[in-house]
C-alpha cells in the first residue's frame, strides 16, 4: 500500500501527517507506525497523526507516538490545524476532536493557537509537579538546565516504580524571568529527548503559575527547537482555564511511502 504523507514540525517536534478525510476508516497497525517513525529505516519522526472527517467538528486528529502508543499532543495538534487549513477543512477558526476531547484553534500571523483542556489537578511534592495537560507531565525547576542530561534523568524517572506502567513525560525547567522559562523534555512514547513538547510547555507554565501563585500568565517557553507561548487564567477554585498553546507549525515536505 502506498501512503502519501506531509512531514511537519512544530518547534522541532516532528510528525508524519496523513490526510484520511477520503478514507475515514483508514488504519495503521502499531508496527507500521513504529516502522514509519523509525529514524533510520523509515521516514523518521516523534509521532504520526491521522486527520479524519468529523460530524460534529471541523476535523478529528488521532495522534500516535513513535512507539505506537496514543496520547494528546499539543505541538501535533497545532500542526494538525495548519494541515487542516491547507485541506480547507475550516476557514478561520477551527474546532477539532482529539483523544482528550474538543479543542478550539485559530491561525493568526502564521502562529497556531490551540485551546487546551482546563486543568484542575496540580500535584506538588518536594519541588516536583505532576500535571496532566492532555498527556501526563513530571516537572522540576532547576538552575543551569543546559548542563543537565535530560535523557538519562528523564528515562530514570519515566521507568521508576510510580510511572513504569503508564509512563510520564519528564521536563526540566529554568526560570529566566517572570515571562520566560527555558525547558528540556524527555518524552514518553518517543523515549528520547524531543526538541519541543507542547503539553509539556503548558504543564511547565501552569506549574510556574502555581509556584508563584499567579492568577494570569503569558509565558514564553524556550525549547530546543524554538519558542512556544502559553497563556492561562486561574479561577478562585484553583482551576486553570482559557489555556492557550501558541506557536509555529511548519510543513517540511510531502512524500509517499510503500507499506
Ligand atoms: N509523548 C507524549 C504525547 C506527545 C506530547 C508532545 N509531543 C506534545 O507536543 O504535547 C505522551 O505520550 O504523553
Describe the structure.
Its EC number is 5.1.1.7. The active site is at 73 (proton donor), 197 (proton acceptor). The record marks 137, 187 as: Could be important to modulate the pK values of the two catalytic cysteine residues. It catalyses: (2S,6S)-2,6-diaminopimelate = meso-2,6-diaminopimelate. Keywords: Amino-acid biosynthesis, Cytoplasm, Isomerase, Lysine biosynthesis. The chain is an alpha+beta fold and 259 residues long. It has 2 domains: 2-114 and 249-258, Roll (Diaminopimelate Epimerase, Chain A, domain 1); 122-247, Diaminopimelate Epimerase, Chain A, domain 1. It has helices spanning 30-37, 74-86, 150-158, 198-211, and strands at 2-10, 13-19, 47-52, 59-65, 93-98, 101-108, 111-116, 122-125, 128-132, 136-141, 169-177, 180-187, 192-194, 216-223, 226-234, 240-247, 250-258. The chain has a 17-stranded mixed sheet that branches. The longest helix is centred in the last third of the chain and has 14 residues, at 198-211. It starts with a strand and ends with a strand. The relative contact order is 0.19. Bound molecules: 2,6-diaminopimelic acid.
Structure summary:
With 259 residues, the chain is of the alpha+beta class. It has helices at residues 30-37, 74-86, 150-158, 198-211; strands spanning 2-10, 13-19, 47-52, 59-65, 93-98, 101-108, 111-116, 122-125, 128-132, 136-141, 169-177, 180-187, 192-194, 216-223, 226-234, 240-247, 250-258. The protein has a 17-stranded mixed β-sheet that branches.
Keywords:
Diaminopimelate Epimerase, Chain A, domain 1, 4 helices, 2 domains, binds 2,6-diaminopimelic acid, alpha+beta, 17-stranded mixed sheet, about 45% strand, about 260 residues
Amino acid at each position: 500500500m502506498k501512503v502519501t504523507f506531509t512531514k511537519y514540525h512544530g518547534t522541532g517536534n516532528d510528525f508524519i501527517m496523513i490526510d484520511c478525510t477520503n478514507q475515514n476508516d483508514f488504519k495503521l497497525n502499531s508496527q507500521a507506525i513504529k516502522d514509519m517513525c523509525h529514524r533510520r529505516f523509515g521516514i523518521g519522526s516523534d509521532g504520526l497523526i491521522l486527520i479524519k472527517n468529523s460530524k460534529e467538528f471541523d476535523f478529528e486528529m488521532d495522534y500516535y507516538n513513535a512507539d505506537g502508543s496514543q496520547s494528546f499532543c499539543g505541538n501535533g495538534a497545532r500542526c494538525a490545524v495548519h494541515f487542516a487549513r491547507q485541506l480547507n477543512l475550516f476557514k478561520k477558526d477551527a474546532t477539532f476532536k482529539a483523544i482528550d476531547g474538543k479543542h478550539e484553534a485559530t491561525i493568526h500571523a502564521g502562529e497556531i493557537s490551540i485551546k487546551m483542556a482546563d486543568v484542575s489537578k496540580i500535584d506538588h511534592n518536594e519541588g516536583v509537579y505532576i500535571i496532566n495537560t492532555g498527556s501526563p507531565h513530571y516537572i522540576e525547576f532547576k538552575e543551569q538546565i543546559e548542563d543537565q542530561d535530560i535523557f538519562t534523568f528523564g528515562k530514570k524517572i519515566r521507568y521508576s516504580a510510580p510511572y513504569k506502567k503508564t509512563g510520564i513525560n519528564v521536563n526540566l525547567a529554568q526560570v529566566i524571568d517572570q515571562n520566560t522559562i527555558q525547558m528540556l523534555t524527555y518524552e514518553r512514547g518517543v523515549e528520547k529527548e524531543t526538541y519541543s513538547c507542547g503539553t509539556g510547555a503548558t504543564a511547565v507554565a501552569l506549574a510556574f503559575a502555581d509556584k508563584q501563585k499567579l492568577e494570569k500568565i503569558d509565558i514564553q517557553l524556550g525549547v530546543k527547537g524554538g519558542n512556544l507561548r502559553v497563556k492561562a487564567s486561574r479561577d478562585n477554585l484553583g482551576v486553570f482555564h482559557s489555556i492557550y498553546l501558541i506557536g509555529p507549525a511548519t510543513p517540511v515536505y510531502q512524500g509517499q511511502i510503500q507499506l
